Amino acid sequence: MKNRKQAYHIETEKGLINDPNGLSYFKGKYYVFFQWNPNTTDHSYKVWGKTTSQDLIHWSEPIIALQASEAYDKDGTYSGSAVSDGETLSLYYTGNVKREGVRYPEQCLAQSKDGVHFKKYGSVLSLPDDYTGHFRDPKVTKEDVWKMIIGGQNKKTGRGNIIQYTSIDGTSFKFNKIIGISKQYEMIECPDLFTLDAHEVLIYGLQSRNNDTDECLDAHAVYLIDTLSDLDKGMHMDEGYDFYAPQTFVDAQGRRIMLAWMSRFSDAQEVEFAKDGHIHCLTMPRELSVKKGKLIQLPVREMYELCHEIPYTNHMKIQRQAMIEISPLEHISFSINKELSIHFNEGISIERYDWAEQKYQKKSWPIKINHMEIWLDTSSVEIFANNGEFVYSARLDPQAEDLLLASSKESQNINVYRLEI
């Protein structure tokens, strides 16, 4: 069996993980919760998994934090968020309830004083009359009042909205306003609204659904800055294949940090990875900023402490955990095994080998690249170009134990770093 186990990305030893939830900094530790089916590699059941870290690099063994155990969450503890006030960690999540195949979600609360034991307090918001059972993913913040934004499908239009609710005490929420509306997409998922560098930023997922069959057809993560009402104008957060459900939090240093689900596989791609008994992972932590009307994403600075430079020579071999830095001042192509190739010409094109279809998937962009970082783990790549303006995330199926790095011509503009985890 191939070794696809990641070295510095969050994943589990068994089952399926997806959306990161409840990202928070609480009593000296970073907390990452996530959607998890610990039993099998499908979406048939969901609990909240949990892992913690003191440095955003080394993560504890994932354990279950919230089980589907009560009448209001009996069919799954679905996505949500966390609020830390220093003494209490409050988790808000969607309790999935199905009656005769119809969803009746409840937005629920659980709290902890130690980050280990969580007490459930039940529903804080029931399904409003104006929305279908697609009403989920509460992102809660505490300022002068408690605010909850949530994605919902409007019954009348069959399209997605982001709605804001408020609360005095965080235990009962009332309608406040509609943040934004989609006229094109049937559902909005995983909304997150925050202020960054004096700008209002909204990130969310646009989801196409077949309302007759209740089937998800497509979904991708986007963002808006300052002008938020027209959700269809969202700009792509990531240009790769495997990025969805991003969520952010603020750490003790005031950084806005984001993680996302790093796996949007096709059914055929999932079959191969599921042979390992576990599937999917999260992105590395990224620090966000806003510059010139764009959302900038870069690896948190802790990641750079792992980098140890080694001289680059064409057709060199290196361990799979690596970072390659390219400053393309000329027309070159760069390849990593048969898994990935990058071509710098008038613009940039990236080809990722699709292990299921056994052919290359190619994307091209008419942008000039001045600088690029390629972060590689055992079975993934995250690319950050032009100081975080351009980001590309994708899973890879390892074709060899090592990485073979090759450029189309000799270049002085390539630096290679091994990552010591």
Mind telling me which CATH architecture of the largest domain this is? Answer: 5 Propeller
Average pLDDT works out at 96
Rg = 21 Å
Please report the total strand number as a whole number. 35
- Say what the CATH topology of the largest domain is: Tachylectin-2, Chain A
Structural class of the secondary structure composition?
Answer: mainly beta
Order of adjacent strands in the largest pleated sheet: 24-35-26-31-32-33
Regarding CATH, which class of the largest domain? Mainly Beta
The CATH superfamily of the largest domain bears the name Glycosyl hydrolase domain, family 43
Please give the count of helices: 1
Q: Could you tell me how far the N terminus lies from the C terminus, measured between alpha carbons in angstroms? A: 23 Å
The residue fraction in helices comes out at: under 10%
Question: What overall geometry do the principal axes of the alpha carbons give?
Answer: globular
- pLDDT under 50 segments (min length 5)? none
Largest sheet: 6 strands, antiparallel
* Strand fraction: over 45%
Question: What is the domain tally?
Answer: 2
Domain Glycosyl hydrolase family 32 C-terminal: 370-401
InterPro entries: ConA-like_dom_sf (IPR013320), GH32_Enzymes (IPR051214), Glyco_hydro_32 (IPR001362), Glyco_hydro_32_C (IPR013189), Glyco_hydro_32_N (IPR013148), Glyco_hydro_beta-prop_sf (IPR023296)
Family: Belongs to the glycosyl hydrolase 32 family.
Domain Glycosyl hydrolase family 32 N-terminal: 9-299
